[in-house]
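Homework help thread (please don't just give me the answer)

Our assignment gives two proteins as sequence + structure token strings and asks us to describe the second one. The first is just a warm-up. Here they are:
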Amino acid sequence: MVFESFAEGLSFFLWSTFIITVIMGAVVNKTNFCTMGAVSDMVNMGDYGRFRAWLLAIAVALLGVTGLEYLGMVEVNNTFPPYRNGQLVFGENILGGFLFGIGMTFASGCGNKTLIRIGGGNLKSVLVFIIIALIAWYMINPFPGSDKTLFSVLFYDWIRPISADLSSQQDIGAVISAENTAMVRLVAGGLIGLLLLVFIFRSADFRSSKDNILGGMVVGLVILTAWYTSSNIAVNADDSLYSMSDYYSEWDMLAEDDEGKPERGNAVAAQSFTFINPIGQSYGFVKSGFDKAMISFGLISVIGVILGSLLWSLISRSFRIEWFVDIKDFRTHLTGAILMGFGGVMAMGCTIGQGITGVSTLAIGSILTLFSIVFGSALTMKMQYYKLVYEDEASFFKALVTSLVDMKLLPSSMRKLDAV
């Protein structure tokens, strides 16, 4: 896709993003595709339907990226966020993912689900959105009149040392073989994707669930489409082709003025969907006085998902205004939003951003984050259930230990509450 000007390329980039996120928002609302709901169904009811839908999205994105990268049709090395960065910040991946998993359970859904719920009329999710936006923005942007961020003040000094500087990129292919990285990526991605498909479709119940199949397929294809589109926009300048990122880096040499220049170069890098950082970008856009230079892939994706969800809510007549049941419900969602804001930025993504988009690059950090999110959410749900059943008898410690026993992470002799 070659354009004669940067402005034309950027316009296509943003409009294509808008269209596919509207589709994503509508389909996710229709099919009730939800990571938190998937974990809840699995933990509380032993129902793996929505969890398989999530795995289907991962498999589709992974197989697609693996094949297209081998053919040279997508760029997933120099991306935003930098999933394959040679510094493996495993401490941040694990802690951030764990906090995010807890947070999304308290807040009734992940970042993407928050947008879906807003489109469906849920005002509780508006509060969650605002809190995430503030925290996500100041986790990576300095406070007014300062060079400090929330991350630098609260986390950097003690968690950044919990990392590993690799001699290569951190994806499975590069770690296994520096000489045959491309082939190892193809084999590893293909094998993992095919194994996931076998597990997913061995379930007769899943094979008969049109919504779960539709949700998983569409989300996976949307992730893949964004990777392809963002990797293949080129600008023809002085009879040479430049990627959007390369053009941005050479802006002073190629452009006549700063008209139409994005605020940051990573806004036009190869990328796919993630939602915590973009929710933060929404606050940055408002804070800037709606500066056009702040309009980005992430900001457009937030708007598109909300609008797509709203359209489906109106078409299906499922739009409902919902507010907090009581002060406890308010506090729970507030706590969840805070944890999602901190955890999502620290882990460099959410259930979509790391769990599907990041995993599609075979990045080790993304895989660590994925497992940490699921663990944090599952543990929280189990503890909530024990506290609900046993009420005052179930202290935090008893519920925690018993839940860990249920998850076979502690011996059964340590059980504090009878199994429910």
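The one we have to describe:
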Amino acid sequence: MVIAVNAIFFQPNLLEGYGNYANEIISRLVESHPEHEFVLVFDRAYSHPFFTAPNLKSIQVGPPARHVPAFLYWYNISAVLALRKIKPDIWVQPYGFCSLTSKTPQLLVIHDLAFHHFPLQISWLQRWHYKIFTPHFLNKAANIVTVSEFSKKDIEQQYPLTTKPIKVISGAARKGFVPISWEEKEQLKEAYTDGYEFFLCVGGISPRKNMMNLLKAFSLFKKWHKTNMKLVFVGRLAWHYRAFQEKLKTYKYRNDVILTGYLADAVLQKLTASAYASLYISDFEGFGLPIVEAMQSGVPVITANNSSMPEVGGDAVLYADAKNPAAIAEQMQIVYRDEKIRETLIQKGLQRAVHHNWDTAAELFWQEILNTVTVKP
């Protein structure tokens, strides 16, 4: 069997949530099924920083698909023409889009419908693309996967005409996210926060990550506690980030806020394990991998009580209303002041993280590949 995989985000510094999900699953399938050929389909010059194997090939098909007109051309014309030469049995689409012209059965992964709930946080052209084409993607795909029960219900509610069953295959924390020694923590803190404890926020800088309310919550926390605690943001400048940058210029506690930018996995894993607590208070998430990564690292988590995050965190994390900075600050205060609660969260988090497993996810995904191959386009 020849399995084509859309690999347009298999690029250094561009993996993040969607890319990490695809990378973790596809790399396992390549290794566990050497009898089948996998073809990564890139839209630009590529390298192999993530995984290699004798049964893995790569092809480059232009133009680079990084805006709506290029998406339409790449998915429906150039990539389709290229795939005709290799004749794949299936085309895996991990990023929420698929081809409307390909005759190859496609397995579509839709992580969330954030564009539907927060349309003003993306450009008008992106809104148009999602609004017009998402129903067609759902109808065209042979099978559909999503990452949480919340996203499954959301898709079913927003697109009731979709008749195909939606399979939930959630993600997990990568292997490198583990507790580290006190000495290692001290080294990381010396490198990033002058040796002080810190709250960690992981995610691209964008409005949906709720950065402005996190700053307000941190201000309240600092007002209540005269402490050198820092607030560390890890992630690239994604979109609509200028308001956040402008706010930081006049922010009272600017010297206690650190922006690291995008970090390599090895550094992110150590920094996560060194945090006093992880703050993941997004307005909306289809899953929220940083929640599981922090739990697996032995770090207490404060997250939002909306969308999929209660499904991911269960009773192992603290919750706050993402719209209420005071509620967020109160949870930060609890973790800071009550060592017993903090230790309970750490232990519960470690136990809950075990239930999220990439090997299990890959096995379920393989079954969906087999199911898709049997479906005629």
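TA reply:
I won't write it for you, but here's a hint about the kind of observation we're looking for: DSSP finds 14 helices and 13 strands in the chain.
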